[in-house]
Amino acid sequence: EDKVVQSPLSLVVHEGDTVTLNCSYEVTNFRSLLWYKQEKKAPTFLFMLTSSGIEKKSGRLSSILDKKELFSILNITATQTGDSAIYLCAVEAIQGAQKLVFGQGTRLTINP
Amino acid sequence: KAGVTQTPRYLIKTRGQQVTLSCSPISGHRSVSWYQQTPGQGLQFLFEYFSETQRNKGNFPGRFSGRQFSNSRSEMNVSTLELGDSALYLCASSLLTGNGETQYFGPGTRLLVL
């Protein structure tokens, strides 16, 4: 069965710190890995990764995929209180009943 | 470009009733997927529609059904509601259903079953 595991489940840091969120997966016929940020409502798209070793970057956020070791990391530098959210990792498989398989999420809290 | 819209935003029902939720995708998007989000199970895939056809289905009982119309709008129906159906139901649309598309989520419908 396809599975996505995120760690840590919860993280509390101070503003200005750098955080690294982890996502490992076991998926048959991997197509892509996506990161979402969920605040109070719907998840909002951050990154889609399909190739190993190519870093995607958007401002203070960056992410990279390792298809050999089956994991991805999401880095946030110089964190701000507005970064507080649940970060979801999802994997898309080419076949199978699941369109996107989500991890449990990492609840990130940034304290001022 | 308007985002994904879902109606209603909040709903309270009692056990045994049925409910219909609606999702309007981003203009031009033809794929609509539905997810259930609960604190215990996280986000779980329900089904996906593309061009009025169900293409993928998750592991949910037959009480959960859906359909898609020719304008890509989708509805999801849950019959004989149970307390455990209380959840945030999210709809996501994407342009294609081929390799590399990304999904954009609507604000969700929060369903409370009493």
How would you describe the overall organization of this protein?
The complex is a heterodimer of chains A (112) and B (114). Chain A has strands at residues 3-7, 10-14, 19-26, 30-38, 44-49, 56-58, 61-66, 71-76, 85-93, 101-102, 106-111. Chain A has 112 residues and is mainly β. Chain B has strands at residues 5-7, 10-13, 19-24, 31-38, 42-50, 53-57, 64-68, 74-78, 87-94, 104-105, 109-113. In chain B, the strands form 2 sheets. In chain B, strands 2, 4, 5, 6, 9, 10 and 11 form a 7-stranded mixed beta sheet that branches. Chain A binds chain B through residues 31-32, 34, 36, 41-45, 48, 50, 88, 90, 94, 96-105, and chain B through 4, 33, 35, 42-45, 48, 56-59, 90, 99-100, 102-108.
Work out the helix count of chain A: 0
Q: Regions of chain B with pLDDT < 50 over 5+ consecutive residues?
A: none
| Tally of contiguous helical segments of chain B | 0
Percent of sequence in beta strands of chain B: over 45%
Shape of chain B: globular
Percentage of residues in DSSP E strands of chain A: over 45%
General shape of chain A: globular
Order of helices and strands of chain B: EEEEEEEEEEE
Low-confidence stretches of chain A: none
Which two chains share the most extensive interface? A-B, 24 and 22 residues
How far apart lie the N and C ends of chain A? 41 Å
Major beta sheet summary of chain A: 6 strands, mixed
Radius of gyration of chain A: 14 Å
Question: Could you state the order of secondary-structure elements of chain A as H and E?
Answer: EEEEEEEEEEE
Helix content bin of chain B: under 10%
Secondary structure: number of strands of chain A = 11
Q: What do the pLDDT scores of chain B average to?
A: 91
